[in-house]
Amino acid sequence: MKILVPVKRVIDYNVKPRVKADGSGVDLANVKMSMNPFDEIAVEEAIRLKEAGAAEEVIAVSIGPAKAQETLRTALAMGADRAILVETDAEVEPLAVAKILKAIAEAEEPGIVMLGKQAIDDDSNQTGQMLAALMGRPQGTFASKVAIDGDHVSVTREVDGGLETVKLALPAIVTTDLRLNEPRYASLPNIMKAKKKPLDTKTPDDFGVDVAPRLKTTHVGEPPVRQAGEIVPDVDTLVAKLKSLGVA
Ligand code: AMP
Hints:
Distance between the termini: 58 Å
Cofactor: AMP
Strand order of the largest sheet: 9-8-7-10-6-1-4-5-11
Mean pLDDT: 96
CATH class: Alpha Beta
Radius of gyration: 21 Å
Helix content: 25-40%
CATH architecture: 3-Layer(aba) Sandwich
Organism: Altericroceibacterium indicum
Bound molecules: adenosine monophosphate
Family: Belongs to the ETF beta-subunit/FixA family.
Largest sheet: 9 strands, mixed
Low-confidence stretches: none
Keywords: Electron transport, Transport
Strand content: 25-35%
GO molecular function, one term: electron transfer activity
CATH superfamily: HUPs
Number of helices: 6
Order of helices and strands: EEEHEHEHEHEEEEHEH
Number of strands: 11
Number of domains: 1
């Protein structure tokens, strides 16, 4: 079985995003970019399934600018076998990503497409679900445990008030949640080895997908500045304060 892992290059989670002065988006000039954290978890899970003998090949795919190659090399250094870059400088929305992934999945026929539950740059949380719908495949989203069971996969999901386990017939779509695993660091020898692993470059046109945006961003702004706190001398003052604010 092959596992296809889509990995997105996003602004690093440690970076405090700066909004462009004209309110048209987030300023990405000279900002550290990394693999989307949920996608690192997906790569880790796919490699673990391969190490456990449940999969033969892990293929990482990224849709984005030429620099997304670095993200793919990280996936290869973690242990993916080969990579596909679908190169475009356009901002690709989840529907277009899902259409490209569908075309790749039809060609590669993976048993599982393992995505992150969401990309932390635009928090869409849509691509996995759209891909499952476009392909007519079962989906297990927000996975906190994944277990292959013959020609099925059991996915334990974090839902309100507890855990739910769904059993999906393969091939299936799985999206990863934070507690699924802790991704490994790539070792230096593996980073060197990753440079020699195959990386294919394509374009959205190769898959006949029009990536023109369907949505228009009207404004991006900073969140409101947090108000300063106030230290009160005793509990009575605190209670009076809370009452005056209408919260007690
Ligand atoms: P989203 O629906 O944008 O929140 O993204 C959910 C997941 O879809 C991500 O965690 C990735 O696994 C995958 N994905 C989204 N955009 C891309 C992209 N441009 N390239 C590769 N994978 C992507």
